[in-house]
Amino acid sequence: MGFRVLLFILFSLALSTSFSSYALGKLGHQLVCQLSYDLLSMPQQQKIDQLLSDLPTATKKLINKYNYQKENSDINYAKACTWADAIKRDKSFDSYKPWHYVNVNRDQDTIDANSCKQDCLTAAITFHSSQLAQSDSPKEQAQALMFLGHWLGDLHQPLHVSFASDLGGNKVNVKPKFGKCKNLHWYWDQCLLYVEELPKDVSPFQFLYQQLTANLNKVETPKWQESEVYKWANESITLVRSAEFGYCEKEGVHCLPLSNGGTEITLAYHKKYHQILQQRIILAAHRLTSILNKVL
Question: InterPro entries from the xrefs (predicted)?
């Protein structure tokens, strides 16, 4: 994924779909973009719908395949925001792979404009915001729209703002409380949105969407300024550097690799950070909306 954020998680012990059917790369990213879409005005929604309806057939098929949908299904913004993960095997998009995250040194606890100037997550948000606003090409605008939604999700998944030496938590082993996620990044991408008691005939997306929608208006949509992206990234780096997060061990200003190489995900950890991740998704949705309000 590169939340890439944020974001883009499934779960019921009696799950009928495969475990890999949902991830922050899918469910989390879908939630961010659907909630953001809901916050937009009808003219803005119509512009998004038009851009997505004009996507090449091959792109629509790829998005649907990645989301386990029929290839001729309509593309909405929720599904379109998974596109940045769906293209990872397409070598023509290889240059975008580093855009899913921003790496910092282990003694760094803040993100600013000097942390990364290009080819990283914070720069990606600025770049595609500008492209969506300024491009005269509907194809470029559609791609910028899809990238932008994905980047906001990635930025709000804290481990997308972390350290290169452990691949943003991909080398931090975990004993999962729920699911099959074997490392910390994977757990945050996928297993952390597990719902213990999923109502019958209700999908994980429907259940979480209803929960998040009920809390959506408790947050105000900010006005977009490029400097805000660093504040949002700082929220993520602060989370991952905290002792409770289980990602690294503090030694002075350094956040060193865990001495035992991993951590156990307890029920208390899952419940606490499940709620925090839901809050991060809501923030990502409002902040994506703040950008789209300015550039659409």
Answer: PLipase_C/P1_nuclease_dom_sf, S1/P1nuclease
